[in-house]
């Protein structure tokens, strides 16, 4: 009986001893790894280099790194107006601005869609008190014009916007305004950036309201009591 | 057993009662030893449970920073095979190391963020989060105007955004330069790498959740159950230290998408942001966007007074 007890006891002691030994030897190992940061760094570098060569065979490891471009998306050209009906031959299609505007007198004073009686009716215009021809070109309706009268193509619409919105243009130039995707590191790949009218409707440029979609099941900082009531009221409305 | 001896020499040998005592002590000891052994078995029974879900190789795996190149390759091959077996998905797990000369920094334009939460969803998909809980490393906090104290906000808002009297504060791991989460980890399963990213070795983490408690930004997440991701939705571009599917019972966190950013790409949440509020880059590069923002905008950091030195900035236009 006592022998068994002693054996058991010794077994437990050995186990504790072994755990202690493993713990201390691990600590020692870890200190070793801290003592040789060079080794860690060299592993890091070799890993990185092998990755680069794997994904980009083009030799870019030399000092002169050719950079990929930052591509700013552009409108494809002047807008085209979809025809509502069909012509006598039954064709639908779209027409250029100039199709109509070449034969019409521009009204330089017009500022809203409300005063139009034939076309572009019902358009929301909420962009300060500027007139249509502040930006559209009365002499060539397939292009835009700057404040000084210089013609500017629809593709270069950002030049036009930047006349007034220079703060935003400056931020845009430094990546601090406007969405982008692709690469942060231009030595490894290009970057694509939105242009002004990808996000802002030029006629009503305020950024639109959105609806929250995706929600984690997370009750972090649940609203205070009064907002609970509010939530309750909302859910009652749904029923 | 010893009683005969005791009877034969009742008075001359004082040691004899001790002999008798010895047997009693032995019995008591044996009793305690049995109890102890029983307690020990009970104590390690969770381990035996765990062992059922853990291959011997996984159990024996050493700390990430101590793995040799060949060992890493073995571990990664094993993890890829396990993902195939458990999730039915073919994935590639990379071992992306920091790019020399980079320190990653994030900035968010709070004048522009409207709280729509597309970044939250992008993170969820990119990082193979549990589909059931809609887990994500980002919380967008709806804040009353006039304070930067994130504890005053709420994440439970819904409907049309932005609301007039609110602003929106997306919070994820700030990749602190003085990370309290790293200090408290008893097994060094989490550490800060050369490019500033604070990472977790999910195979070394013991799930004690000290780091979760230590993080002032509530940036860490615990896997309460096995993450469920349908095979078709698993993002196959993975990395050991980031978005490979995490085991149950370990802590995880935002890694600035190191499987993307260490390959030169932008983080998933940035690409998904429809308002363009997010900016990412290398702060060591003088010409980077991030440097321009720090030099030209009104920049804030969260809970500055704690001295965590975040690599994450908020600015207003
Ligand atoms: S934000 Fe939290 S998880 Fe991230 S480094 Fe800082 S303390 Fe750690
Ligand atoms: S950087 Fe990546 S991991 Fe971090 S919050 Fe964004 S999507 Fe998630």
From TrEMBL, chain B:
Coiled coil: none annotated. PANTHER family: PROTEIN NRFC, PROTEIN NRFC HOMOLOG. Residues 196-225 form the 4Fe-4S ferredoxin-type domain. PROSITE patterns: 4FE4S_FER_1, 4FE4S_FER_2, TAT. GO terms for molecular function: 4 iron, 4 sulfur cluster binding; metal ion binding. This is Fe-S-cluster-containing hydrogenase component 1. The keyword Metal-binding applies. CDD domains: PsrB. It comes from the Bacteria. InterPro entries: 4Fe4S_Fe-S-bd (IPR017896), 4Fe4S_Fe_S_CS (IPR017900), ET_IronSulfur_Cluster-Binding (IPR050954), TAT_signal (IPR006311).
